[in-house]
Amino acid sequence: METGATKATVKAVALISGATSVKGSLHFVQGPNGVTHVKGKITGLKPGLHGFHIHALGDTTNGCNSTGPHFNPLKKDHGAPSDNERHTGDLGNIVAGPDGVAEVSIADRMVNGLINKNFRSVHCRLYEIRLVLFFHQII
Q: What family is this (predicted)?
């Protein structure tokens, strides 16, 4: 992008499906102000807290073993979303209610730029966008 050019809003959708009962969709909207909003709904989770993070690889052929580490291009230590020192892919926790449904609404500055690098289309399947989101229950 040229200096002084207006930054556009970039959007992408991740559809969550697979062999498990976990399903849903997440909408990523990266605004010109540098904030990426992640909104959506995930069903089929166990009730409670679930870690929410982006992995480096979009390869799910061997489950979690093939997705690589958390997305961390800046080589930072693991941390909470509010920490300055954290993986870019560390997005905190989401909460699934008693019905197994989690409503996701996250605003994050560090994820900014991820869509430009990895999303090739506004409507993508989860595995095609080279972005893997994982939800693990926090005990």
A: Belongs to the Cu-Zn superoxide dismutase family.
Task: Please report which confidence band the pLDDT of residue 21 belongs to, taking 50, 70 and 90 as the band edges.
Answer: confident
> Concatenated DSSP letters for the chain?
--TTPPPPPEEEEEEE-SSSS-EEEEEEEE-TTS-EEEEEEEESPPSEEEEEEEES----TTGGGGS-SB--TT-PPP--TT-SSS-TTEEEEEEE-TTS-EEEEEEESTTTTHHHHH--SSEEEGGGGT-EEEEEE--
Six-digit token string for 46: 């166990």
Antiparallel, parallel or unpaired: β 23-30 and 36-43? antiparallel
Homologous superfamily assigned to 10-137: Superoxide dismutase, copper/zinc binding domain (2.60.40.200)
Pairing of strands 123-125, 10-16: parallel
pLDDT of residue 7: 66
What are the two backbone dihedrals, phi and then psi, of residue 127, each rounded to the nearest 5 degrees?
-80, -20
Task: Return phi, psi of residue 15, to 5°.
Answer: -95, 130
pTM for this model (two decimals)? 0.73
| Domain segments of the chain as ranges | 10-137
